[in-house]
Specification:
- By secondary structure, the protein is an all-beta fold.
- It contains one helix and 44 strands.
- The longest helix has 16 residues.
- The two termini are 27 Å apart.
Length: 621
């Protein structure tokens, strides 16, 4: 069949179908401290702060968004071009994929609190946008506000999640997730998890969680998921994720032993750092299942306290935030959960290779975990720190982003400059692509960095995390990219960071074995793409099915995955059992549209005379 016929079929059938859719402070015991201690809103450092921002392009251009450190980012599940970002005390939104951004919206807290950072953003299934951050008095409490996803304006809140800061409690380093799965029994429920540094400050830390059914206005009584007896050591930081069936997962890092030398109790011992993952099947009411995703010593990284043994040569910034393990619940494969963490592979901090990024996989709802798989080690003795991760809700593509010093560039003091690297996986975390840099030029983490611990020598701070989000085959990253004016948040996008084509299986053999279907191209409107069928029966009638949905159905002893079908197109394989079909999608197809492709081939050797290619899942940018 000619490429033009398929192009016409796709343009007409797909286009018509889609047109209607679519201060240094004494640290706590056990070597850790609340991440927000010592923060004050910084003066406006750059002319861009407080103003709308435009970028020359959304892809490949670093955009300065002002703010300071600890940036977070989220993408509206209803619109991949609607993106929200926040840093310590402000938030912005974009409705054009990051090409332009609104002016800053400042975090608001009721008196006597003042905003104190740790921002996180989340969209629910209807496109509501929520923003959580700390409010400080004598201690810290947690607040949630709702923002207009188009203008970024505050439209509701702030609502208090906790209210014990005046008693000296420090509720710290929270993470927010919304159940945006329409088929979940708890759809649009909001979940928070965080660490409590209770009064007195040297008491054992606790990991708590809470949920809201009224868009953040009220919250359930906090529930502890860590061991309140303190046997798990210093527990911090936590993260959470929601699976398509509504199951909730909470991860947290546990550090039992520190060297006890220097500020904050010193650095971890290299052998006791581990990651727990708890699961709830009742919407966060209880978490009866708790397992270890990374065993002791498999998630142990230096905090890089400068006056303690175990500091990284050439880096003065605090690394406690690198212990946060990022959870991903697979949106395409039930029961699959992934946990991304950082570890010192030789367990000796301050020498050799100090930090690599790993992923642990579970295929049984977090009950058991496979051995950690290396995401990236970089060249010998380089470090990979502060990993962050996201998963594409359509394709299941996994994105991991981190700070990296592999280039070896240094500043005038001999300290490493940093780059932001990313790697992706399209096979559920089994393998990862070659890492690539997202940022345009290396940046100096020392510029404008405040002092976290006085030392001497002092330990500086670049924040406890960076952020990434992905949709429609593109990834967006935000990081603390220090400039001559001081710390600020930088963002950039990588179009095609997640390949738009995903093999979803279901091939059924014929005379030449399993027919193989591959797709190439970006699937951008009017751009040329190609479908190639190999290993099919030669000179045989072949029918390609194209669909907007996947409902695996028995078909001639195989499985036809691409139904209900929106269009089919017949053709004939070549003498080598191949077909090449170029095609283009029409303008107006929304970004994030999912398409499925699969071939059925007449084959006398196959059961019931039909073999099937694998199915391809493709997502438009």
């Amino acid at each position: 069949m000619s490429g033009s016929r398929l192009e016409i079929a796709l343009c007409v059938a797909v286009g018509i179908t889609l047109s209607s859719t679519l201060l240094a402070t004494p640290a706590a015991a056990q070597g850790g401290a609340p991440s927000g201690l010592g923060r004050t809103p910084s003066p406006r450092l750059l002319a861009v702060d407080g103003l709308p921002v435009s970028a020359a392009a959304a892809d490949g251009v670093d955009v300065a968004l002002g703010g300071t450190n600890e940036p977070a980012i989220a993408i509206n599940p209803l619109d991949p071009f609607n993106i929200a970002m926040a840093s310590l005390f402000t938030a912005r939104v974009s409705t054009d994929g990051g090409a332009t951004w609104t002016a800053e919206t400042a975090a608001v807290t009721p008196g006597p609190y003042f905003p104190n950072g740790d921002p996180v953003l989340a969209f629910d299934s209807t496109g509501r946008l929520f923003w959580t951050y700390l409010g400080a008095t004598f201690g810290f409490d947690l607040f949630v506000s709702e923002l207009d996803p188009v203008t970024g304006d505050l439209i509701a809140g702030p609502f208090a999640v906790t209210s014990t800061a005046d008693l000296g409690d420090f509720h710290d380093k929270q993470w927010l997730v919304a159940d945006c799965n329409p088929d979940s029994p708890f759809v649009d429920r909001l979940y928070l998890t965080w660490t409590l540094f209770p009064e007195p400050l040297f008491a054992p830390t606790e990991v708590l969680t809470s949920y809201s059914d009224d868009h953040g206005v009220t919250w359930s009584t906090p529930l502890a998921v860590s061991d309140l007896a303190g046997t798990e050591g210093f527990v911090w930081a936590a993260h959470n994720a929601v699976a398509p069936n509504g199951d909730v997962y909470v991860s947290y890092h546990s550090q039992a032993v520190f060297n006890g030398i220097g500020d904050g109790g010193g650095n971890p011992d290299g052998l006791s750092g581990q990651t727990f993952v708890a699961r709830s099947t009742d919407g966060g009411v209880s978490y009866p299942q708790k397992t270890v995703a990374f065993a002791p010593g498999d998630a142990d990284v230096t905090f890089n306290v400068q006056n303690s043994p175990g500091a990284i040569p050439g880096a003065t910034f605090w690394c406690q935030g690198s212990t946060q393990a990022w959870l991903l619940a697979d949106p395409t494969t039930p029961g699959h959960v992934y946990c991304v963490a950082v570890d010192d592979p030789d367990d000796v901090h301050g020498s050799g290779d100090d930090a690599d990024v790993f992923i642990a996989r579970s295929t049984d709802d977090g009950l058991t975990w496979g051995a950690p798989i290396l995401v990236d080690a970089g060249p010998a003795e380089s470090f990979q720190l502060f990993p962050t991760a996201a998963i594409d809700k359509q394709s299941g593509c996994i994105v991991v982003v981190w700070y990296d010093n592999r280039a070896g560039a240094v500043n005038g003091s001999g300290n490493f400059l940093l780059d932001v690297y990313t790697s992706t996986s399209t096979d559920q975390g089994l393998t990862f692509s070659a890492p690539v840099a997202i940022n345009d030029v290396p940046f100096d983490p020392d510029l404008g960095a405040p002092v976290r611990f006085p030392g001497p020598p002092p330990t500086t701070r670049i924040g406890e995390y960076i952020g990434t989000a992905t949709a429609g085959g593109s990834l967006h990253a935000v990081w603390c990219g220090n400039t001559g004016g001081g710390q600020q948040t930088i963002t950039d996008a990588l179009v095609g960071g997640c390949p738009p084509w995903l093999d979803v299986g279901c091939a059924f053999p014929g005379v030449a074995g399993l027919p193989t279907l591959t797709g190439t191209g970006t699937l951008a409107a009017l751009a040329q793409n190609s479908l190639r069928l190999d290993n099919a029966a030669p000179s045989a009638m072949a029918l390609v099915f194209v669909s907007l949905a996947s409902t695996p159905t028995p078909f001639k002893s195989g499985t036809l995955k691409t139904v209900p079908v929106i269009t089919t197109a017949p053709g004939t394989t070549g003498v080598l059992g191949t077909i090449d079909i170029p095609f283009a999608l029409p303008g107006g197809v929304p970004g994030g549209t999912v398409l499925y492709f699969q071939y059925a081939i007449a084959d006398a050797v196959a059961t019931q005379g039909v073999s099937l290619s694998n199915a391809l899942r493709a997502v438009t940018p």
